[in-house]
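Renewal narrative, Specific Aim 1. Our central claim is that a sequence can be written position by position from structural information alone. The example that follows is taken directly from our test logs and has not been curated for this report. It begins with the structure tokens describing the chain, in the order in which they were read.
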């Protein structure tokens, strides 16, 4: 009799163990259908170091998405482009193929695969952050940012970037003429090459991971990026001047491999989408505050800053407008160009 009772107790214990304490799911989380959700680990690759804005925005996204998924999503943020060797084109291909799960990169680097992304970077197309933000949330902007779906990438966030400034070791830049003969690193994007070439610069497309050494060795005179990039990469060690040209807009495309996304529960997908939408505004507020700190850090470490006058800006605008035919050719979508120009009042 005692043996039969003991056997019954052991059987019951084994059943409870199989049900994670007689409660079903060990994590205590179920999806909308009541099925237990498995814990999923996702790595987010970003191009810049831990001190960068985008690394911190990615971490904010990860924290929110994890919270909204009730802890069933666990994220790791990997900086410095280390997972794709600093080669952004390779990173996009890896994301498309699924060897990267998530990747946050500037929309401008996607232009090598989808020329329409060039429209965001047309010099002086956007007046300010708010106009850029409104554009990304417009029907035109959303359609554009979702074009990577044909590559097996799902866009789960469209975040703005600070407008770009020029740093160099030769002289302040107040008008296009100041760029004449300057060896300037630009992204591997024909639109950048076209514009800065028209300003008189000697453009050198280069992977960003090589830029610091090239500046240090004086094989480059300068580069152009939002202010957080020279700040987080300590370009004050190898650059003297930073100029408030604010010549181009850019955006962050928060991408996840589509098959990875489809494999998540509905609740996990909603958590990621919600976090991506919320961090858009969080990022705007964060950048506004941090840009001041970044610029002051550059100045405290010996760099000199100059704004450009209205007259100088107008000269840059004229150079940009003189390149519109070429820009439209590069974008290869007149309807998109015209819709964007109309949205920005530049038609």
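The sequence written for that structure reads:
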């Amino acid at each position: 009799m005692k043996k039969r009772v003991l056997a019954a107790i052991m059987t019951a214990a084994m059943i409870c163990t199989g049900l994670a304490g007689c409660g079903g799911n060990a994590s205590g989380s179920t999806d909308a259908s009541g099925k237990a959700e498995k814990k999923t680990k996702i790595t987010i690759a970003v191009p810049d170091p831990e001190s960068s804005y985008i690394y911190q925005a990615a971490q904010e996204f990860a924290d929110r998405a994890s919270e909204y998924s009730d802890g069933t999503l666990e994220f790791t943020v990997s900086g410095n482009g280390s997972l794709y060797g600093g080669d952004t084109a390779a990173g996009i291909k890896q994301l498309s193929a699924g060897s990267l799960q998530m990747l946050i990169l500037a929309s401008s680097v996607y232009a090598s695969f989808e020329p329409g992304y060039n429209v965001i970077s047309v010099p002086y197309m956007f007046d300010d952050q708010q106009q850029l933000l409104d554009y990304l949330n417009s029907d035109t902007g959303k359609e554009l940012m979702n074009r990577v779906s044909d590559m097996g990438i799902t866009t789960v966030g469209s975040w703005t970037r600070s407008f770009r400034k020029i740093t160099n070791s030769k002289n302040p830049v107040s008008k296009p003429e100041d760029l004449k003969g300057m060896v300037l690193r630009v992204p591997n994007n024909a639109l950048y090459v076209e514009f800065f070439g028209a300003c008189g610069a000697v453009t050198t497309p280069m992977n960003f991971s090589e830029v610091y050494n090239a500046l240090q060795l004086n094989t480059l005179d300068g580069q152009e990026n939002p202010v957080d990039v020279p700040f987080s990469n300590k370009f004050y060690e190898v650059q003297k001047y930073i100029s408030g040209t604010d010549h181009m807009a850019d955006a962050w495309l928060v991408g996840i491999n589509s098959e990875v996304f489809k494999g998540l529960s509905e609740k996990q997908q909603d958590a990621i989408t919600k976090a991506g939408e919320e961090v858009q505004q969080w990022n705007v507020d964060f950048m506004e505050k941090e840009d001041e700190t970044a610029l002051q850090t550059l100045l405290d470490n010996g760099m000199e800053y100059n704004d450009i006058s209205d007259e100088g800006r107008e000269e840059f605008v004229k150079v940009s407008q003189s390149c519109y035919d070429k820009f439209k050719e590069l974008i290869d979508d007149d309807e998109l160009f015209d819709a964007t120009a109309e949205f920005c009042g530049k038609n």
